[in-house]
Amino acid sequence: VSLARTLRRTDSVIPMLHQAQAEHPGDFWVNFTLGILLGERKDHAGAMRFYTGALAIRPNSSAAHNNLGTSLHDQKKMDEAIACLRKAIELDPKLALAHNNLGSALREQKKLDEAIACFRKAIELDPKLASAHVNLGNALDEQGKVEEAIACYRKAIELEPDHANAHFNLGQALRRKGDLVGQAAAYEKVVALRPDDAEAHNNLGSVLHKKGAPEKAIAEYRTAIRLKPDFALAHTNLGGALGEKGLLDEA
Questions:
Q1: In this predicted structure, what is the pLDDT of residue 160?
Q2: Cβ-Cβ contacts under 8 Å for 108 (sequence gap 6 or more)
Q3: Element (H, E) at 237
Q4: Rounded to 5°, angle at Cα 191 from 187 and 197
Q5: Quick one: which of 72, 130, 126 has its CA closest to 102?
Q6: pLDDT tens digits, residue range 1-52?
Q7: N or C, which end of the chain has less CB nearby within 10 Å?
Q8: DSSP H or E run through 26
Q9: What pTM does this model have?
Q10: Is 66:85 a contact under the CB 8 Å cutoff?
Q11: Exposed (0-12), middle (13-18) or buried (19+): which is 82, by Cβ within 10 Å?
């Protein structure tokens, strides 16, 4: 398990842990760690299998219930996810991550007031949990409370300056306020952190276009299309920008 944690980014780690699990099927940490690493690789069904195995060994593990809940969430099995996350909280009421994850699942079900209560509880338990501030901002934004949402995103960025989702969502909220300068700064940070984020490049292009920088906007639209060739909105935006420059055939 210790070696797996050291080699977690390598291709050899999963086969190694599968071998360890075959030899020691009753070891909690082998099953739990396999769940974590499979989840990181987006194999949510595989992660669920090994978290379930871990819980068969330690039924009262709040961490395993929490992680199983997130795997179920990733598979859009919301009712099952919520049940697991509630169990995690029952076992450990101070587990901030479980409150945060429960809020995310409830938000998926459009239960925004309940979700907000969960996010606030997570922040109360762990004020430095940046993801809870982002999630709270998302739920408040969906309720039309844009200023409160912006404050949440800014707090997340204060806690974790390289939190790409916080910068992206801040840009989205500032767009609804018409703040071009703030939007540009937010999306520029996103593309610096996630150069392969097609939507961020497209959104940055839109802001630059509105700010009167068509050449830079066109470059961002082209990048978005290179990253995501079937991105219809980026093609539309590029066509509009080219048309305004008189390049009608290209447009």
A1: 96
A2: 73, 76, 78
A3: helix 232-244
A4: 105
A5: 72
A6: 888 888 888 888 999 999 999 999 999 999 999 999 999 999 999 999 999 9
A7: C
A8: none
A9: 0.88
A10: yes
A11: buried
Place 216 in a pLDDT band, splitting at 50, 70 and 90.
very high
Instruction: For the chain, give percent helix, strand, coil, nearest 5.
Output: 75, 0, 25
3-state secondary structure string, 107-149? Answer: HHCCCHHHHHHHHHHHHHHCCCCHHHHHHHHHHHHHCCCHHHH
Residue with tokens 């996630």: 194
And the tokens for 139?
């739920």
Tokens of 174: 């500032």
Query: Encoding tokens for residue 209?
Result: 């276009």
* pLDDT, mean over the chain: 95
Give the mean model confidence (pLDDT) for residues 164-178. 94
Number of H helices, E strands in the chain: 15, 0
- Identify the band that residue 114 occupies on the pLDDT scale cut at 50, 70 and 90: very high
Phi, psi of 231 (to 5 degrees): -80, 90
Amino acid letter, 155: K
d(CA 97, CA 95): 6
Q: Kindly calculate the radius of gyration of the chain based on its CA atoms and give it in whole angstroms.
A: 22
Q: Determine the residue type at 183.
A: Q
- Residue 231's pLDDT band (boundaries 50, 70, 90)? very high
Instruction: State the pLDDT at residue 11.
Output: 87
Query: CA-to-CA distance for 40 and 9, rounded, in angstroms?
Result: 10
User: Could you say which DSSP state residue 10 is in?
Assistant: S
Q: How far apart are CA 213 and CA 116, in angstroms?
A: 39
Reading the block at residue 161, the tokens are 């300056």
